[in-house]
Amino acid sequence: MRKNLRVLSITATICGLLTMASTAWGADVVKSDMKVNVNGKPSDLASVSQLVDSSLYAPYESVAKSLNVEAKWDAGTRTMILKKDVNVMELAADAAEVKLNGVKVTTATPLQVLSGKPFLPVRLVSEVFGNTIGYEDKSRTVSVSIPDKPGFRLFGIGDRQALAGSELSVTAITYNHLLKDFAQNKDPKAGEGHVHLWLDTETTPQAAVKSFKGESVVFKDIPPGEHTLTVQLVGNDHKPIQPEVKQVVKFQSAKVSILADLDPEKATGMRIEGVTGDAKGQLYTVDSDSRKLFRISSQNGKVEELTVLSRAATGMVFDKAGNLYMASGSGTDGGAILRVLAKDLEGGSFDASVVETFVTGVTGANGMTFDEKGNLYVSGGANGNVYIVSPEGSLINTWGSGLVAERTDQRITVNGLAFGQDRKLYIANTSSGEISRVALNADGSFGKPELFVRDALLYGADGIAFGTDGTLYVCANERNAIVKVTPDGKVMEVASNGNAGLLEFPASVHVIGDTLYISNFDVQRGVNNPNTPGIGASIAQVVLKEKK
Fold it and tell me: What are phi and psi of 80, to 5 degrees?
């Protein structure tokens, strides 16, 4: 079978515990030398624990006893069920996924069977059931604090995360709050009650979804857009317990699909990095290997091969006159910008001889954008430069940004470029996962760059583009994610997936109304490693809002 497209799943990340990363279970196992305290007192977990790839594990009986949970091990199926009150955690040996009240979440620390005995990850189990984990490096002491006040942990979605699809399953793992059927237990009683959940509604008892069995709650038919989930502990009388225990989660839902599969026969083999669009809503991209220039209808995904370029190209942009510019960052000429005039794009395929060399001497050329005067700004990638090219094709300035690479394995500091409504130039730093911006002086010189936003969600920041409302959309290539940044610097995930999803090392973004068009570069790196599963070189579309 050529391309195995798995269903995208919701992933919860709690305190760095639950991750999207898959893990190969050829683990290093050594006897632990760590001390373990539970509620300030030494625990016998220390004497029986092991370190599995530096994570603390202990026999399931010891963990269950220390954390006051029930445990049942099935040797035949190599599965474990942990239960506390009505809350249930299901684990399978070596599986990178656990179930919490039926909600599936991924983990980097699965149940392990060591010398024929099941061992549980101490941090994972502790935090799922509401406990707090601390670590003191000097004494190598792990501290587990079991709370004595009511609370809950929400699983299924997290603040600023993206929901894939239109269905959301969540659960609140409660502690020190005994869940009761409110129909049978109507009188207020300390320590008893249930859970209220609201999705995009007023937070009244009448509008709440009510949970009292420790079950998962499923919200269906969620449209694309921003959403707010509110979860609160209440008493038998539906009134909030005091002090209030409430969590508000804001997340983004988007509809992701493939507009055009440019290599239907293979999941790897083509590399398309740039994507742009003309005034008619037609999209353009280039395969770096074959050097073919494609035009794609944003309406139906129809693909046309227009020509074969004389050299590979990456970043792409149109000017106001409808001329197409393509960046080719390497070559004996030090890198060049190619141009196809608007008149040559009016028909179908054309000879490569009509493709002009607009300017040379732009080493590392990749991202591009125009200012109001028609000057072209070109990013230099790892050299940290921004080149300014006049409307006539003269290289009039080379600005050294001074932005620094933070990773030796990724030195690109000046990647995607875009002008904001504030007329500042915004710059994606792929190495550090941040967006910087710089004001331009009246004479065209650059001011001092300033940090606009830095966030873990921006890891691998590549192509960027602004929406009409001033929201900045960012391709976080190494996370297989699209992220948005509001004008006041708030960061939220729009869409993301593993290495078999619809986003595969997204490199560039083009915005048309409430839809994003994404080039899947499909490089074998980060979350996209290995890159053999999935769709491969393609144009994905991300619908942000439903059309009314």
Answer: -130, 140
Phi then psi for residue 345, to 5 deg, are -100, 0
Q: What SS3 class is residue 479?
A: helix
Decide: 34 and 48 in contact? Cβ < 8 Å. Answer: no
pTM greater than the 0.70 cutoff: yes
- Residues 157 and 167: beta-carbon distance below 8 Å: no
192 and 240 within one domain: yes
Query: If you search the block for the tokens 């992933």, which residue do you land on?
Result: 11
Q: Count structural domains, the chain.
A: 2
Number of other residues whose CB lies within 10 A of the CB of residue 373: 8
**Confidence at residue 181, expressed as pLDDT on a 0 to 100 scale:** 96
211: number of Cβ within 10 Å: 21
What does the pLDDT look like over 329-370, one tens digit per residue?
Answer: 988 889 999 999 999 999 999 999 999 999 999 999 999 999
What's the domain range around 92? 29-145
Q: What is the pLDDT of residues 213-226, one digit of tens each?
A: 999 999 999 999 99
46 and 124 fall within a common domain: yes
Q: pLDDT digit string (tens) for 227-248?
A: 999 999 999 999 999 999 999 9
Residue 440 is assigned to a structural domain of this protein: no
The two beta strands, 55-59 and 50-52, are antiparallel
Residue 65 three-state SS? helix
d(CA 238, CA 256) in angstroms, rounded, equals 38
How many angstroms separate the CA atoms of 225 and 335, rounded? 40
Amino acid of residue 310: S
Cα(254)–Cα(494) distance, integer angstroms: 6
243: preceding bond cis by omega (within 30 degrees): yes
Do residues 313 and 327 touch, judged by C-beta distance below 8 A? Answer: yes
Residue 432 lies in a domain: no
Task: Dump the DSSP string for 212-254.
Answer: -SS--EEE--PPSEEEEEEEEEE-TTSPBPSS--EEEEEEEEE
Angle at Cα 485 formed by Cα 484 and Cα 486, nearest 5°? 120
